[in-house]
Amino acid sequence: MGHYAAAVWDHKAGIEITKDWNGIDQVLLRNPRGASAKVSLHGGQVVSWRNDKGEELLFTSNKATFKHPKSMRGGIQICYPQFGDCGILDQHGFARNKIWVMDENPPPLNSKESLEKSFVDLLLKPSEEELKHWPHSYELRLRVSLTIDGELTLTSRVRNINGKPFCFLFAYHTYLSVSDISEVRVEGLETLDYLDNLSKRELLTEQCDALTFESEMDRTYLGSPKVVAVLDHERKRTYVIEKDGLPDTVVWNPWEKKAKSMVDFGDEEYRSMLCVDGAAIERPITLKPGEEWTGRLMLTAVRSSFCFDQLELQSKGFF
Q1: Which has more confidence, 200 or 306?
Q2: What is the per-residue pLDDT across 92-125, written as a single tens digit (0 to 9) for each?
Q3: What is the spatial distance between Cα 126 and Cα 129, in angstroms, rounded to a whole number?
Q4: DSSP of 140-204, one letter per residue?
Q5: pTM score > 0.85 for this model?
Q6: Does 164 reside within a domain?
């Protein structure tokens, strides 16, 4: 862990390092206005994101398992190198189940970025045991940053340090906290083609002006725009989800029947969460030796007085 292991609180960077009840490091990012984000080295998972009022913006199940190597149900999970249960690997891949380390050689920040953000850099490399099941040498870097305005950004970089090409899928499995799923709508996905994962991945076209929820939903929207908005009417809050390098968007809510079948999920908790994931899963990403892929997700919570057209116009470019 190098020089990070001795750190407890870095006032300049807005970083505090603590240990969870299993002795695994967690990094707490804070900004001067009181917003915060907490990142666990277990899975490189963002386990909390709070606004300047101290309100939690991410959902975590009350029945979540908090013991390595089981991933925690909630927050933002890093799904790599697969999404779903489609091979010999763990569901959604192994990255969310591994212990990451602090990155001693992260990509450089420019001076403006270092002034405006508190951030942490994490690194995951394959273990000898892992190479037996997925024989590809890679470096997966993750930067989690929190701006002075409370925006949360996750940037992932996958580099092939192998002697041959390999393919992978990727997703930021993002559990948003909502007041009541029946009072939520998603804008920005209208007219798009999607795969209905509840109907053997049947290809359909979205007909609604905005996505609302009355039953279980598990869809992969293909070629989705860089900006999607989740409007929570009761809380008068809108989540703005911006992404780059991630062509797809997954929308998931288990609803009542599936919720009751999940051991790490409360029977009624489907009402207070919604997953909207920036993802690259329809077409696998292929990296040749020495190549690097970058995917980025930025989350902002704003008052719902904004309409989606305004959010589109005001969206920030990533690169």
Answers
A1: 200
A2: 789 999 999 999 888 887 655 555 689 999 999 9
A3: 8
A4: EEEEEEEETT--EEEEEEEEE-SSS-EEEEEEEEEEEE-S-GGGEEEES-TT-EEEETTTTTEEE
A5: yes
A6: yes
Q: What is the DSSP letter of 126?
A: -
Q: Is 91 annotated as a binding residue?
A: yes
Domain tally, the chain: 1
Which tens digit of pLDDT belongs to each residue from 17-27? 999 888 899 99
Tokens of 96: 């969310």
Domain boundaries, position 48: 2-179+237-314
Task: Please give the structure tokens belonging to residue 190.
Answer: 């209208």
Mean pLDDT over each residue of the chain, to the nearest integer = 88
- Is 235 marked as a binding-site residue? no
Closest CA relative to residue 161, chosen from 126, 130, 129: 126
Query: What residue type is assigned to position 76 of the chain?
Result: I
| Res 7 pLDDT > 50 | no
Confidence of residue 133 (pLDDT cuts 50, 70, 90): confident
Side-chain half-sphere CA neighbours of 86 within 13 A: 15
The answer to whether the annotation marks 77 as part of a ligand binding site is no
CATH number of the structural domain spanning residue 125: 2.70.98.10
